[in-house]
Amino acid sequence: MKKIKTVDAVGYVLQHDITQILPGEFKGRAFKKGHIIKEEDIPKLLSLGKDHIYVFELGEVGVHENDAALILGDLGRGENIYTDDEIKEGKINFRAKCDGILKVDSENLLELNMLGEISFATLPNNYPVEEGELIGGSRVIPLVVAKEKMEMAKSLIKTPLLKVVPYKKYRVGIITTGNEVFYGRIEDKFGQVIKNKLSEYECEIIGQVLCPDDKEIIKSRAKEFLDKGANMLIFTGGMSVDPDDLTPSSIIEMGGELVTYGAPVLPGAMFLLSYLGDIPMMGLPGCVMFAKRTIFDLVLSRVMTGEKLSKRDIMMYGNGGLCQTCEVCHYPNCSFGKQG
Asked: How far is CA 200 from the centre of its chain?
């Protein structure tokens, strides 16, 4: 690296972007890497505090920040991820190619940042994202980083750190249980809530049926939906521990794999998840009907990608599983469901 007085720098080529900050007005690039310094540039460079210009002689040992950003782009860019065309001040941005769930290799992300002189930041793992959304950004800290450091990074990251798993199209059957609804003593208001939640995804609702508190009828209606091609079943009502609430036992008796009856999430502690082969069956507690966001929102987004959740996946929500019931809901841009 060579240090040249700015007043003597006419004709030299800038080896890095130079930023200008006007408090409350502007922050951005004043001079771009590759700019040939002209006589009229000298006063502005001096006003930006640049009494000297540094010319980097990279040779075999150094990597310029923009070239390092390209390497980091390759390390982060997995399935359904793209990077912005422009690399600004050595930073590369990652965006989602489609709607879906962001998957972050958190362990290797930590190891990469632990190398030092590398900054790689992302949205949280399992975050629902939209097409074009900014999901990560990376850069090296110095203007020139050791080539050895970047080789270490490449040897550490064998598969890309980021990917977006797209949502699939599901055919959904809704089974609402409870004598009070079946016999018309009260109006069902659960079904519309579920339909509104499902409308956030591209899926087909085959229908909704009302069932009395009778396990055989509940199981029979569920089987009818399966025979019609449903590949997701959602049960509402009858999810408490009262003896009259038969929905959980009905789901369990249908066979398959019971993942969990209960979750460390509030609202949503009485949530049930089971799989009949690859078909997810969810029993929803009453809170889903009146709370803005619950365990159902956290799990549904992941289930919609075809991910088969384990008991551990559900129990991991304990860290971050408390909804603060804000007056104005900002989910998913809040702490709810974000695992620390």
From this structure: 16
